[in-house]
Write a structure and sequence with these properties.
The two termini are 19 Å apart. The chain is built from nine helices and nine strands. The strands form two sheets. Strands 3-2-1-7-8-9 form a six-stranded parallel beta sheet, sandwiched between helices. It is an alpha/beta fold. It has helices spanning 3-13, 49-52, 55-60, 62-73, 82-92, 107-111, 137-142, 168-180, 230-235; strands spanning 17-21, 96-101, 116-118, 121-128, 134-135, 155-159, 183-187, 208-211, 224-226. It binds carba-nicotinamide-adenine-dinucleotide (CNA). Carba-nicotinamide-adenine-dinucleotide (CNA) is lined by residues 22-24, 26-28, 31, 33-36, 39, 102-105, 120, 188-190, 192-193, 212-214, 229-231.
Length: 239
């Protein structure tokens, strides 16, 4: 049995699948990740993305933060690819229980997924630090400089910046889903960003599938390792 046949067999046999993903899930939708050769780390900026997307940078160089955020994080024309769409289909079929994602692009919801646990928030929600009013991504894209609310307060993306903590309810729910899953599919993530990457330790089953283009620190723990494009892999799957 080849890798794809085994993947299909495990999907067919499972009824409580959880997907854990990262930026690599959206590269085939045209959104660059951080660590690939054409990822944001290898594009030239005055500062590395992790510095720009940190709480300190947001506080101290807010103008520069929003220049990068508008330019690189608000990819509003991106559409879901075969991986997002197939995961939504698996949920509709009653086989997939949750998508746990490090992504902030909203593409799983755009594909129709209902249960999406966003560990790092979403660019589609931005809120006023003074009055709490919400603004969507298009509104932020249309504003210039540091976005300011009608009330005069500063608007902040509902995105977990480096140095900031993750939402405890989202973490708790992710742990609960992962620890009760009969199959865990991990895809498009370098598994280098903590605490998110540590969540996969809660999986207790023996159907851990890891789909990633490049090697990760968890490769040896996978029961099935597929080193390929995630959109290509999911497009071959029958639900
Ligand atoms: P990462 O560290 O950039 O790693 C991405 C991984 O995906 C790499 O190992 C690549 O080899 C792999 N990869 C890239 N394209 C594909 C593909 N088509 N098929 C299979 N594998 C592929 O990204 P992580 O998500 O692991 O890092 C965590 C950060 C990146 C999170 O905090 C995200 O919020 C952040 N991020 C998110 C987005 C987004 O929302 N789309 C974009 C860029 C960065």
């Amino acid at each position: 049995m080849n890798n794809m046949e085994l993947f299909q067999k495990w999907i067919d046999e499972s009824e409580n699948i959880v997907f854990f993903g990262g930026a690599g899930v959206s590269t085939e939708s045209g959104i660059p990740d951080f660590r690939s050769v054409d990822g944001l780390y290898n594009q030239k900026y005055d500062y590395p993305p992790e510095t720009i997307l940190s709480h300190t940078f947001y506080m101290e160089k807010t103008d520069e933060f929003f220049r990068f955020y508008r330019d690189k994080m608000l990819e509003l024309d991106a559409r879901p690819n075969a991986a997002h769409l197939k995961l939504a289909e698996l949920e509709t079929a009653g086989k997939l229980k949750a998508v746990v994602t490090q992504n902030i692009d909203g593409l799983h919801q755009a594909a129709g997924s209902k249960k999406v646990l966003e560990l790092h928030g979403s660019v589609h929600r931005n809120y006023c630090l003074r009055c709490g009013k919400f603004y969507d991504a298009r509104q932020i894209k249309a504003m210039e400089g540091v976005p300011i609310c009608d009330c005069g307060g500063q608007i902040k993306p509902d995105v977990v910046l480096y140095e900031e903590g993750l939402d405890t309810d989202t973490i708790r729910e992710s742990i609960s889903c992962i620890s009760s899953a009969d199959m865990l599919i991990i895809g498009g993530t370098s598994l280098a960003v903590y605490p998110a990457a540590g969540l996969i330790d809660y999986y207790r089953g023996d159907k851990l599938v890891l789909i990633n283009k490049s090697a990760t620190p968890m490769d040896r723990r996978a029961n099935l390792l597929i080193q390929d494009s995630i959109g290509k892999v999911f497009s071959q799957l029958k639900v």
